[in-house]
Amino acid sequence: MEDLYIYINSIITLSEQGWSALKKVLNLRQVKKGEYLLHAGEISDALFYIEKGYCRAYYDYDGKTINTNFYFETEFATNIRSMKSGAGSEYFIRAEEEMRVIVFNKDKLYELFSRSVEVDTMGRRLMEEILARQEQQAHIFKLDSALERYKYMSGIQPQILERVPLIHIASYLGISLQTLTEIHNTQK
């Protein structure tokens, strides 16, 4: 949990009392490759901090897989909209490697928020960080070229090129495998 503590303290300085209270509502979970953290249609009831491994978020649209994100070590994975609204998720989140995650259970976390202004502030700042990244990604994927999307992806998540199959990356970037291969070869 030390990486999580460092991450949180990079966003907000949490007192020892606040950290101690937060640790009590967190659970460590081992996730097998291929296991789902969230199914489409399921209501998201947790936020997952990734200590080890990675997962991907994807839609299954008319039998076609459309990848929308990859989450690696020291990142959070969830469906914020589902978590906040109580509506079913539109997409899946699946482990692509063996994973170790720290689970922030929604109900336990919200209960702690009601008791601790400090932890509530931390929670809002974490959500702001997650949403800011998603907003930046949405903007880039709407307006930028395939090459610019590739550069953005490899800049913020360089491990993606080493750990994720090219077919998943192509889907994520919204380009063909052939176009991805051409871009990848010119960027070496």
CATH class of the domain at 2-115: Mainly Beta
Helical fraction equals 40-55%
Taken as a percent bin, the fraction of beta residues is 15-25%
Query: Please, how many helices?
Result: 9
Structure classification? alpha+beta
- DSSP summary, beta strand count: 8
Low-confidence stretches: none
* CATH homology group of the domain at 2-115: Jelly Rolls
The CATH topology label of the domain at 2-115 is Jelly Rolls
Cα-to-Cα separation, first versus last residue: 36 Å
User: For the CA atoms, what is the radius of gyration?
Assistant: 17 Å
Q: What is the CATH architecture term of the domain at 2-115?
A: Sandwich
The neighbouring-strand order within the major sheet is 1-8-3-6
Shape: globular
Largest sheet: 4 strands, antiparallel
Average pLDDT score? 93
Order of helices and strands: HHEEEEEEHEEHHHHHH
Short description:
By secondary structure, the chain is of the alpha+beta class. The chain has helices at 2-11, 16-24, 80-85, 106-115, 117-143, 146-156, 160-163, 166-173, 177-186, and strands at 26-31, 36-38, 46-52, 55-61, 64-71, 76-77, 92-95, 99-105.
Helices, strands, pairings?
Layout (H helix, E strand, L loop, with lengths): L1 H10 L4 H9 L1 E6 L4 E3 L7 E7 L2 E7 L2 E8 L4 E2 L2 H6 L6 E4 L3 E7 H10 L1 H27 L2 H11 L3 H4 L2 H8 L3 H10 L2
Antiparallel strand pairs: 1-8, 2-7, 3-6, 3-8, 4-5, 4-7
Helix pairs in contact: 4-5, 8-9
Main features:
188 residues; alpha+beta; Jelly Rolls; 4-stranded antiparallel beta sheet; 51% helix; 23% strand; globular
